[in-house]
Amino acid sequence: MQDIDRMIEEALDGEEQALFRETAREPGFFEQAFGLLGGPNGWVNVIMMVVQTALFVAGLWAGWRFFEADNALSALHWGLPAAVLVLASLIVKTAMMPEMQANRLMRELKRLQLQTAVGRKG
Predict the structure, then answer these.
(1) What does the alpha-carbon distance between residue 53 and residue 16 come to, in Å, rounded to a whole number?
(2) Degrees (nearest 5) of the Cα angle 114, 41, 108?
């Protein structure tokens, strides 16, 4: 794979080489995760993260009250909402994984476009 990358980079002009270097490097998990907070859909992801954090904190608080309960009815009163809130926060967080995958696919499509452009030149 590295030989292909080197051959493509050698065949490109200056501006195209910079584009190729940008698309050739696969960003790490945290870089991809924080990359979701920018761009055209970044505001939606920021709202989702705020909601997810609020759900998680509320779930922790209800869980704390659950473990402080001294009878079964009180434990049920706080335990069920605690479980629902923590699970809801998990669901909201995992809802952002498809967008990370879509960003990976878009990066690879750009890379393929660049490779076909180089193939046409050469």
Answers:
(1) 41
(2) 20
> Tokens in use for 115?
């490779």
What is the per-residue pLDDT across 38-54, written as a single tens digit (0 to 9) for each?
Answer: 878 889 889 999 999 99
DSSP secondary structure letters along 33-58: HHHTTSSTTHHHHHHHHHHHHHHHHH
Q: Which residues contact 16 (CB under 8 A, 6 or more apart)?
A: 114, 117, 118
Cα 113 to its chain centre, rounded Å, is 24
CA distance 90 to 60: 13
Q: What DSSP designation does 26 have?
A: P
pLDDT digits (tens, 9 = 90+) for 29-40: 778 777 788 878
Whether 96 and 36 have beta carbons less than 8 Å apart is answered as yes
